[in-house]
Design a protein that fits this description.
It contains 5 helices and 21 strands.
């Protein structure tokens, strides 16, 4: 059992997402930064998309009522165990009565605390992810509050090779890279003018304070449409990373996005770069690069290979 002494700004239970239900209007949800979720789970020997705590900007203070092994990955959050600083990106054995505090992020926005064995919470439509707007999944369908008790399934108190369960700093900080975010065009880019596309790919955008788990709203050069055309389309499916342009300002749709939308989509952030998008905070600047679907597939394979094989650690995504 883990007792929540202080919940932080926004702490929810998230896993790999509620896949297969969008046709019924159920959002996928899940971790905003799936890369860091997988890394934290790997360090504690969990399945890659096992449910973990997703913390936002300011983390919680937790008391452990039983021994287990934890690991934290994602943004650059300070961690202390019983008041002593501990590093992120490593497996940490905690004892009954220990207190772990996750402070305010110095870089990035979101972090993931994985616990060996996972949380003993019910699955809703095949997932433990929290959908706060819908009030289901995770812990009672809401963000954590002081006094909540999180049950654990079968926590390990020690794991083989504990000393080596550390992520290389380069691997840990990969989602915090400051580089252009890659985009594949489509499916409605043909309604945009040439000038509009040039503005998007040659301009610079700022993440606004209105951004959340549903979408990342950007401010910068307006994306214009071809003469006689506008953003309205017959509603179709919305994938994570889709870039809508309802009023000329791009919105990157994220984990809690709606299942369908009636606005033109310029393109989509490639899956390998979604972790970078998820770690952008209000005020951060973003530039975009255009890539092909084939290049996007190569980048995803390289990202996944980094997590699975240390020999490819410094390979460029």
């Amino acid at each position: 059992m883990i007792n929540v002494l202080s919940p932080g700004l926004l702490t929810t239970v998230q896993d790999g997402g509620r896949v297969g239900w969008q046709r019924f209007g159920v959002p996928v949800c899940g971790a905003m930064d799936n890369y860091s979720l997988r890394l934290a789970n790997r360090l504690v020997d969990n399945a890659p998309e096992e449910a973990a705590l997703e913390v936002t900007m300011l983390g919680p203070r937790l008391r452990f009522e039983e021994p287990c092994v934890v690991a934290f990955a994602g943004g650059d959050f300070p961690l202390t165990l019983n008041g002593v600083s501990v590093g992120r990106g490593q497996a940490i054995a905690v004892k009954n009565g220990d207190e772990l505090e996750i402070g305010a992020a110095a870089r990035g926005v979101r972090g993931y605390l994985a616990v060996s064995g996972g949380f003993d919470l019910p699955e809703v439509l095949g997932s433990r992810s929290t959908y706060v707007r819908g009030g289901f999944g995770g812990y009672e369908g809401r963000k954590l509050q002081s006094g909540d008790d999180l049950p654990l399934r079968a926590p390990a108190v020690w794991l083989q090779d504990m000393a080596s369960r550390r992520a290389d700093p380069w691997l840990l900080d990969a989602p915090l890279q400051d580089r252009p975010i890659r985009v594949v065009l489509g499916p409605q880019n043909d309604v945009l003018s040439r000038e509009g596309l040039d503005a998007f790919f040659y301009g610079e955008y700022t993440v606004t304070a209105e951004s959340d788990r549903m979408g990342c709203r950007l401010k910068g050069p307006a994306v214009s449409f071809r003469e006689g055309l506008d953003a309205n389309i017959i509603s179709d499916g919305v994938a994570m990373g889709s870039i809508q342009v309802p009023s000329g300002m791009p919105i990157v749709m994220m984990a809690d996005r709606q299942t369908t939308g009636g606005y033109a989509k310029l393109g989509a952030v490639i899956t390998a770069d979604l972790p970078l998008m998820a770690q952008k905070r209000p005020g951060d600047m973003i530039r975009f690069d255009r890539v092909t679907p084939e290049e996007a597939a190569v980048a995803l394979r390289r990202m996944r290979r980094k997590l699975e094989n240390p020999d490819f650690l410094h390979e460029i995504w």
